[in-house]
Amino acid sequence: MAESKTKSESDSWQFQLRMTLAPELAEQLRRDPAGGAHQALAEVLRRHRATLQCQYDAFAAYVSKAEQLGPDAYPLYHWTRATIDDPQKQAKYLRAFTVYVDGAEVYPAELAGPLEAELRALVGGDIEQVTKYDTNPANNPQPPKGLQ
What we know:
Blueprint: E1 15-21, H1 23-31, H2 39-47, E2 50-54, H3 55-69, H4 77-85, H5 87-94, E3 96-101, H6 109-120, E4 127-134
Antiparallel strand pairs: 1-3, 1-4, 2-3
Helix pairs in contact: 3-4
């Protein structure tokens, strides 16, 4: 009788890739999330139906929406507002980009793995780092108490 495999909990996690870029490339890619300012990056993104989102811009959009609709409905409003108001954190997040695949900010391992490998091959020079995160809550830090 064949052994049946059960899906383990870790198989259900989704993944997200993030990149840290040199300031000049980051500024160019904020205006062009398809990666046109870096030919090799643009080709990898195109092949994987991926785009980039500057984390600072995403945080600023979240804060703006929360302020329009009322921050009580946005649990991370205070933490995010404090983050974008801090000059050191602003500089950090202006260089940090989230990789979206087919418009999604998290995606299955079968999409994340090959994309991660191709992005890591580009590290050096203007592309400083590629990091993979999963959706397992145990692996993700929570905002400090009092800033939520």
